[in-house]
Amino acid sequence: MTLRDLINKLLGREQASANTARERLQLVLAHDRVDMSSLTTDLLDKMRKEILDVVAKYVEIDFEEVAVSLETEDRMTALVANLPIKRTLSGEIKFKKNDKINKADKDIKK
Amino acid sequence: MAENTRTILICSGKGGVGKTTLTANLGIALANSGATTAVLDADFGLRNLDLLLGLENRIIYTAQDVLDKNCRLDQALVRHKKEPNLALLPAGDPRMLDWMKPEDMKKISELLSEKFDFVLVDCPAGVEDGFKNALAACKEAIVVTNPELSAVRDADRVIGILNTSDIEPIQLVINRVRPNMMANQEMLSIEDVQGILSLPLLGIVLEDEQVIISTNRGEPLTLTDSSSPAKKCYLNVSQRLTGKDVPIIDPKNEGKSIKDRFMRLMQTKIF
Q1: What distance lies between CA A6 and its chain's CA centroid?
Q2: In terms of pLDDT, which residue wins out, A41 or B271?
Q3: Does residue A108 surpass a pLDDT of 50?
Q4: Where are the alpha helices (DSSP H) in chain B?
Q5: What count of Cα atoms within 13 Å lies in the side-chain half-sphere of residue A8?
Q6: Across the A/B interface, how many CB contacts are shorter than 8 Å?
Q7: Disulfide-capable partner of B181 in A92, B17, B149, B187 (CB 3.0 to 4.6 Å)?
Q8: pTM (2 decimals)?
Q9: B185 and A18 in contact by Cβ < 8 A?
């Protein structure tokens, strides 16, 4: 927020148009950059299941705590999977919780 | 002759943001600094670079003729009389029937690379075939945009495509900057645009009526001895492109009156 924004706010005036422009642009670009409409729902669910199946073959996962999501930063969109591991299948080693695993790190483009 | 030719794509996505004007002025400025420079108009449907350079009456052949072996490259190149280091090559003719392919453009840029230090490719607007053809001819890119929503959005699309190619570096020029509007926060700031597009900033060009006047005359600003703000910016971009360590022109320093200073104070980020 700039000094001008503060004064505008105090006086109940409309914010400077550059701010509006920036906000609108960020929104539209977030949409343009990743056409996630198809990814956020069905595809992401499918992907989550398959990733879990693969990982579950080797280690026991805490299914309650699993989180698979898309995170966008700068121009990159990353698929971030957080799969807390309870133990290996042999049951000997106890892994620490919240091991963050970046399953895939790729730019998603149309 | 030139071994490390820099072939640079000048693109924007949106039309009318100043690609051709930048190509013409940068071409002249580079040529003037002693580098042999070719400007290639890759927009054969709607070509305009010839007009901006005042060379519209001197075009006989096009790059297409060179490829078809109707003429030699030397015959197709239009040398600028006032700046002999600069030559224009139109890619094709508006009446052309067979459209060029990326391989054709690549071939042309290779031919030009044998003779020139710089090859600036003025890209057509859009992200379709014309853009992809021009892209195939280049090793680096300059993305031109305006501090406006539609221009930035289209630039973002173009950058998305450039990022999937081997073009490197990709640099940004923000054109038609109005310092007063920026100071009033009624225009996206340089930081906004650069932050959103996350490209290294090569330079900015100030909005300037002289640009229109120079276009009317067919004499790029960098060729005239005017002291216009846009000319200063074009020269700055040219110097930075050739690796000179000069700072980018800061629009905040362009207004010196008390009002400008007050407006600058109002831009101070408080949190």
Answers
A1: 32
A2: B271
A3: no
A4: 19-32, 49-53, 63-67, 73-76, 102-113, 129-136, 149-163, 179-183, 190-197, 209-217, 229-241, 258-266
A5: 15
A6: 69
A7: B187
A8: 0.77
A9: yes
**pLDDT value, residue A90:** 66
CA B128 to chain A, closest CA, distance in angstroms equals 14
- Out of B148, B156, B186, whose CB is closest to A16? B186
Q: Which residues of B touch A109 (CB under 8 A)?
A: 160, 164
Residues in chain A: 110
Q: Is A54 part of the contact surface with chain B (CB cutoff 8 Å)? A: no
Strands A100-104 and B37-41, bridge-based pairing: unpaired
Distances in Å between the Cα of B126 and the Cα atoms of B13, B37, B41, B123, B224 are 5, 25, 15, 9, 31
Residue A109 confidence class, pLDDT cut points 50, 70, 90: very low
So what's the ipTM on this one?
Answer: 0.75
Interval B199-219 mean pLDDT: 95
* pLDDT computed for residue B40 by the predictor: 96
B156 touches chain A (CB under 8 A): yes
